[in-house]
Amino acid sequence: MTDDRISPVPRLAPPRDAPQAVTVMLEHIETSWQLARPYADDLAQHFYRLLFTLAPSARELFPVSMQADNGRVVRALLRALRLVHRPDDLVPLLKQLGRDHRKFGLRPAHYEAAGTALLGSLKHCLGPAWTPEVERAWAEAYTLVARVMQDATAQAEAEGTTPAYWTGTVAEHHRLSWDLALVRVEPDEWAVPYRAGQYLSVEVPQRPRLWRYLSPANAPRPDGSLEFHVRAVEGGWVSPAVVGHTRPGDVWTFGAPLGTLGADRESGRPVLMVGGGTGVAPLQAVVDDLGRWVDNPEVTFCYGGRHWDDLYALDQLSGLAAVNPWLTVWPVVERFDDTGPIPGVEQGTPAEAVARWGPWHEHDVLVSGPPEMIEETVAALLGTGVHPSRINYDPFLSA
Ligand SMILES: Cc1cc2nc3c(=O)[nH]c(=O)nc-3n(C[C@H](O)[C@H](O)[C@H](O)COP(=O)(O)OP(=O)(O)OC[C@H]3O[C@@H](n4cnc5c(N)ncnc54)[C@H](O)[C@@H]3O)c2cc1C
Ligand code: HEM
Q1: One Pfam family from the UniProt entry (predicted)?
Q2: Helices then strands (H, E): number in the chain?
Q3: Which of 27, 50, 244, 399 could be bridged to 72 by S-S, CB 3.0 to 4.6 A?
Q4: Per-domain residue ranges for the chain?
């Protein structure tokens, strides 16, 4: 897996036409990051110690046990700063994160403290490699990133049209399999203003102050209800609690929507959707949204899983395909296990499947799933000649 989590391609390198100052800044950041990287755990501990000393009020934003945070915020910060040479990807995401972070009620002092803590912890890990040039590079990158987020927060506050966060009440929770649950949440006051294909930062009552991203599997509905598919990750702090202990009546909290995944009905081009795991949810939401029109581009939905049992949404998608002639569902599994080959189901990873078939260069492509699957699929698509501008997947900075 690359550490360049915002997007698998291109790798960390400034574009050839990047201004000299950006190239130099990135060189300092990258070289020093490679030196600091082996001490990432120490860096994270130092960061939080400094942050909570400089801004004690920040402590109550984080989980009671910092083990549960596991350095995710400092990792997200470092990833953002290492991507300042890719403003086309980074700036829209930072603007959305700025709106999302309104849920924390951050003040400028929090951003200042986080910047000082980050530089202080890098200095602590780098020792003599922390030169004035290296310090300037990280400080400039942090200033750029923090400014975009704070401006977006200020703009949202000035507009005054959306709350800082939304709440909803669980109306339904049932298991789709032993490790997978469907949860339907009804809005308490305001419906979350998301677009089909976006994702939300969610806090559940069983795990206060531990925010996780979840993607609604439905397009926005008149009643504002949201359907989530949550898979319990072994050893995870939040997902097993959601799958095992969520009850109707639980109140969930949501941050502002994030992400840009979506289909362009007006482009006239056919669409290839490639989804794996619960990454299929935002693509289902896009299909659900398209279902409002009779006339749609041709959509080929490649739905991948390790095993046949992983394709939990196949019945629902096949049902949609049966009534929507523009939709074709293409199931792909890595292993057939005891079942043996299943008619109509291809063997391989989604990346192998899209590389085998095609061509796809006429298509708009949407990819969603675990980071490795996105990475492999995007690489395979590029290998078959699809132009990068036609490939749409959500960049994120998460751990
Ligand atoms: C944009 C986006 C959208 C998402 N949408 C959904 C969704 O709709 N439904 C859903 O169930 N999840 C979704 N996720 C994943 C979700 O946000 C959490 O990361 C996941 O539920 C694990 O959280 P946790 O607290 O249980 O595990 P953590 O406590 O965060 O992690 C525990 C351990 O498990 C590892 N781990 C974390 N996630 C995975 C994984 N997926 N597979 C294997 N190991 C893992 C971690 O590296 C860590 O070692 C989405 C993630 C992103 C980035
Ligand atoms: C300056 C730029 C910042 C960026 C790019 C950024 C980015 C992010 C991202 C991507 C996440 C989600 C992480 C995940 O789920 O894996 C996150 C969560 C969070 N951020 Fe920020 N953030 C910034 C500043 C801050 C500041 C200044 C604070 C407070 C001092 C803060 C507090 C938090 C908290 C409390 C969480 C939730 C942590 C958890 O659930 O464990 N962030 N941030």
Answers
A1: NAD_binding_1
A2: 12, 12
A3: 399
A4: 20-159, 166-254, 265-393
Backbone φ and ψ of 165, nearest 5°: -160, 165
Read off the pLDDT of residues 147-184 as tens digits, 9 standing for 90 and up.
999 999 999 999 999 999 999 999 999 999 999 999 99
H or E stretch including 174? strand 166-177
The CATH classification number of 166-254 equals 2.40.30.10
3-state SS, one letter per residue, for 208-255: CCCCEEECCCCCCCCCCCEEEEEECCCCCCCHHHHHHHCCCCCEEEEC
107, amino acid identity: R
- Count of beta carbons in the 10 Å neighbourhood of residue 385: 10
Q: Residue written as tokens 């056919």?
A: 270
Q: Which pair of structure tokens corresponds to residue 32?
A: 């020093």
Statement: 20-159 belongs to CATH 1.10.490.10: yes
Average pLDDT, rounded, for the chain: 92
- From the CA of 278, which ligand is nearest? 1
Inform me whether the pLDDT recorded for 7 exceeds 60: no
Task: Give the Cα separation of 344 and 294 in Å (integer).
Answer: 26
pLDDT at residue 9, rounded to an integer: 46
